[in-house]
Amino acid sequence: MVSPSRVLSLVRTRLLLTVGMCSTVSTWASPVSLETPPTLNFPLTAEVCETPATLTDLELRDAVHIALCQAPAVRQATQTVEEHLAEVEVARAKYFPTLSASADVSRFGKSMRYPGRGYGDHDVYGNRENARLGLNWLLFDSGRRGAQVDHARANLTAALYNKVLVNRNHAIAVASAYYKASSAQASALAAKEAAARAEKNFLATQRLREGGVGSIADELLAKVAWQRTLVDSETKSSQATAARMALASAMGLAGQTPISVATTAHQHAAPVSADTRADATQFPMALTEQINTAVRHHPRLAAARAKTQAAAAQEQTIFAQNLPSLTLQADRDLGITRPSNANARQNVNSWSVGLNLQIPIFDGMATRYATTAAKAKVRAARDTERNIWLEEELALLTDINRLTSTTQKAALLNVAEASAEQAYRSAQVRYQQGVGTAIELLKAQDELSSIKQSHIDVRYELLATQFRVAVALDTLPATGVR
After folding, report:
1. Which of 241, 339, 378, 414 is within CB 3.0–4.6 Å of 311 for a Cys-Cys bond?
2. Residue 117 — φ and ψ, nearest 5°?
3. pLDDT digits (tens, 9 = 90+) for 368-393
4. Do the Cβ atoms of 23 and 39 come closer than 8 Å?
5. pLDDT tens-digit profile of 283-292?
6. Residues sharing a CB contact under 8 Å with residue 273, sequence separation 6 or more, in sequence order
7. Residues 64, 17 contacting (CB under 8 angstroms)
8. How many CB atoms lie within 10 A of CB 448?
9. What is the pLDDT of residue 88?
10. Is the pLDDT of residue 276 over 70?
11. What is the Cα–Cα distance from 213 to 222, expressed in whole angstroms?
């Protein structure tokens, strides 16, 4: 578990949760001028992607592994990468010549008649066979094909970064569901403990009332408090079941899949103390640099940059459409005609080679307007980049602020829980000795249960926020997540 006090100073290691094939794609699919994702160091092998026979005492790392193998959103992102990879090949194929062949066989007939003459009339019919081989090679297109390849490669780069983004976001969603399930499990256990305390206090008031020391009012108040804790325990148990189902769904499994998180998952909250705030404010310059680096390298922003480059390449493609092009054309024709009622046979063997130069002169200003529209899309894409930068920076700053705040709340609730337990034991002893009242005991009992639940809730918020910050700053430990 990453300690909140050390989350900003852990060794930086990449959390690049994506399939291994993306690393192969990124080595050649993007031109030098385009950004490509860094090496993807989180291969999901077939063994990792096998769902365990039982999902009991599930660790967070295993939950994330299963989710990245099973979740439909992750698979869709992978399919999008494959789609754009194929589009790059389509764009590159335009540099090669096209070779086509055709053949036909036909039966023909011709009737010749000369009215007024008694001779010369005749009929001709027979079979005709033709074959044609054609070559077409675009030699020069003023950069249109290069712009199309750049456009396809930029889209592939964006798809690769989107794949990383989907995996990161899904890992965060799974971690949130995992910690929520763990928190719900801890809440259910705390509710059962509260019900046990309430039952013990009810029995104590009952014994005192039967012994003539306590009152029926004290017994009834304790009984109502006990019954209320039983209802709360049932509610918390139901919420724990719902949280486990939500975790299974986030992992890409059926909601009814039997699953349970590790019993120590929620107990592994990092130790906090009252002086943690000082740790979070000792290095503002280093923190600022880490935030800027994290936002600059955020996959969502990188994907937006690739989209901007794709828009610029599309602008160049449209502009090149109205520029000259030169094409090499070659044809070879073979034909055989076999008349059925004559001895004549015709063989045709022809060929041609030539260059075709096309120079667009006027297209009604369509290319000019299309280029203007493409330039506007480029400007809009750059504005989108800036907007994403601001959004991700704000999200990260908000999480860091929340991390500091929840760390302080957790430290305060640690102290408050210890005080509440001491107050409850004191009230229990005072009541048993006849110096305290039942109301005092029940109030201490409720206060202890409330503090424990608040502590559990803050721990969940701390763990979930801590995971998000660690992912954003690439400060997860090299051994993985827990």
Report:
1. 378
2. -115, 145
3. 899 999 999 999 999 999 999 999 99
4. yes
5. 456 778 888 8
6. 411
7. yes
8. 24
9. 93
10. no
11. 15
Q: Which residues of 25-53 are buried (b: 16+ CB within 10 A; e: fewer)?
A: bbeebbeeebbbbeebebebeeeeeeeee
pLDDT at 25 over 50: no
* Dihedral sign of CA atoms 321, 322, 327, 329 in order: positive
pLDDT for the residue 120: 72
**Rg of the chain taking only CA atoms, in angstroms:** 38
Rounded distance, CA 357 to CA 327, Å?
A: 6
Tens-digit pLDDT profile for residues 155-195: 999 999 999 899 889 889 999 999 999 999 999 999 999 99
Task: Quote the tokens at residue 4.
Answer: 């909140």
> Residues 467, 172: contact at Cβ < 8 Å?
yes
Under 8 Å between Cβ of 247 and 63: yes
Confidence (pTM) = 0.72
pLDDT, mean of residues 41-65 = 67
The angle formed by the CA atoms of residues 256, 261 and 262, to the nearest 5 degrees, is 155
- The burial class, CB within 10 Å (0-12 / 13-18 / 19+), for 284 is exposed
Average pLDDT rounded to a whole number, residues 446-451 = 91
306: which 2 tokens? 């690739």
Instruction: Retrieve residue 25's tokens.
Output: 């794609």
pLDDT-derived band at 52 (thresholds 50, 70, 90) equals low
Whether the CB-CB separation of 34 and 153 falls below 8 Å is answered with yes
Q: How far apart are CA 6 and CA 22, in angstroms?
A: 32
User: Which pair of tokens denotes residue 405?
Assistant: 């705040």
Residues 209 and 287: their CA atoms lie apart, in Å, by 62
Q: Which residue reads 């090299």 in tokens?
A: 478
Assess whether pLDDT exceeds 50 at residue 33: no
The tokens describing 84, both together, are 């754009």
